[in-house]
Amino acid sequence: MQIKGDLMLQIEELSIEVIKPSTPTPAHLKTHKFSLLDQYYGHGYLSVPLFYSSPTNTSASQIIANLKTSLAKSLTLFYPLAGRIKDDYHVECNDEGVKFVHAQVRHCSLSQALTPAGDHLSQLFPKQHTSGEELLGIQVSFFECGGIAIGAYLSHKIMDAHSVCTFMLRWAKIASCGVDNFANSPSVLRPRFHSAYVFPPTKATPLASEQIEVTTERVVFKVFRIEGSKIAALKARAKSCTDDKYPSKMMAVTAFLWTIFGAIDKQRRCRLAVAASLRRRLRTDQSSLETVLPIMHKNTMGNGAVILLTPPMVAASDFAALPDLVKVVEDTVRGVDRRDDGGEISKMMESFFEAVVESNDEGELGVYEVSSWLRLPFYEADFGWGRPVWFVALIEAFKNVITYFETRCGEGVEVLVWMTEEDMARFESVPELLEFVAPVLSVA
């Protein structure tokens, strides 16, 4: 897959260091097993840059020293991240550490870099210093204006969006309040690496995302924004006349985008693949008092989402169909509440990968993968000099992948779209899209 971009950054690496946990990992925690859901994800990475305005009264050397110390403490809590992937079944938590790169961006200000499209964002991660065995790399880049980008490069093998957010918030909290103060706080929620107990792995290695043939077409990504007022309008249009409640932000936006996908993929029926978090769907059958889903606490690390396929769109739909499409998406996502922790989850994940393969082979169905990072408080990641001015996540993606993020004010939605150049041109030209969505040219 080729990714198009224009702006390139001139980055000088000032230092490269390996940061190890401040306390050795105990012997009984030296092996971390992958869960069933972890097994379905390849060895790709989630790349998350957080951008900050220039700190006051703090030098770059002080910032770097504090970030290194607090990262070392964080790795004692998130100990698998300092280990190495050894095979398809486990991580050896051997405290080998993570690469920490201190970099300077030359001839570019933070405002110039806040253009949410292009190869330049990928330069803010230590990709060249990490391999498939490592689970985390950090690059801290200083701009000439004093602004900062903290780029975290995390393995999707054991970290999903929720886990990444938990790690970044814990690291930021330790950096801002001090290692000793954080360690002695009774309110600290400790991350739990027990997902293999919640979702036991299978002995037969399942089809993983990295085994799907990547398209050779040129793929571009762009960020679009739907302001809060437009969200309200979409929710009103997507509300069923028989239902007193308005659909959620995520449901309204997803149904709306589904109509756009149908408009640009007229040769095929299109369907959605929606990532549904199991952390939000803990259900108990009150009649039998038996848990129908295993307990996945909010501080459980690992992959905690299953990908569900909607039925194909019967025909090209317009705004009049929004309430019906919302119901289809809601019914699809609710289906996970009735599933168990083993065979059914495997069937759902395998169905998704098979559908992607068929779609890439130009089958009769087009598949658009939708995942939501809404409600994840990345904007609370204050390392001691204020909240981020912007963040985004660059998932190592295939074409037709859509991710939602909160805006900084929390009212709107930013939509990251990966498509072929040809499809992106069609996507941006749909009149109904332009009524509600605007491309983000700069977030400065």
From TrEMBL:
One MF term in the entry's GO annotations: acyltransferase activity
Keywords (A to Z) from UniProt: Acyltransferase, Transferase
Organism: Stephania yunnanensis
Protein name as catalogued: Uncharacterized protein
PANTHER family: F21J9.9
Gene3D superfamilies for this protein: Chloramphenicol acetyltransferase-like domain
Family classification: Belongs to the plant acyltransferase family.
